[in-house]
Amino acid sequence: MSKDAPRSMAVMFQMMSQMIETEKDYLSELDGAIGDGDHGITMSIGFLAINAELAKLDLGRASLSDVMSTAASGFLNAVGASTGPLYATGFRHAAKALVDRPALDLPTCADMIQAISTGIRERGKGQRGDKTMLDVWLPAADAAANAAAENKAVGAFWHDVVISAENGAAATRSMIATKGRAARVRERSLGHIDPGAASAALLIRVMADALQ
Ligand SMILES: [Mg+2]
To answer: Which CATH code for domain 4-211?
Structure first.
């Protein structure tokens, strides 16, 4: 299992990229309602870049941490603004959390999700209720930590994480944006799901599918 973990994580990033290609227009439409309409394109560029970088990695020798730090630099090099530094910092924090972690057991998965969300929060200086991707990543991280502490089975662990993420994304519909481009439209953002929250929930669903 542990020898295959870096490969599983690389496959996870491939699945994320495929999902983003499928949902690209939907994500850009969400962004068009409250932002500049490029979120689908941005995420597509970022995840294609991640996979281009991962393709150069020797997965027989790479660690989980190597896969994650390669994803971080691939994303940042391709997406310099907005979402780029947020996910790059999240993935970089996760790479640190994954040092000397050979397997994707549930405590490791919980720490990885926690590290991604902490990285995004520190970089974006945001919190829950801002109508951003943090409204998905922070509750997902809490759910993962709780499920791991309760020693839940694999299926129950990921179920909790995915439900928290999806509830978090849905909750952004009734929030007023205070961060990023959507903050310029403030009240007009009410009634629209935040595109970054929507893509975060989709990514977490793919993570669950890939790692369980
Ligand atoms: Mg945008």
So the answer is: 1.25.40.340
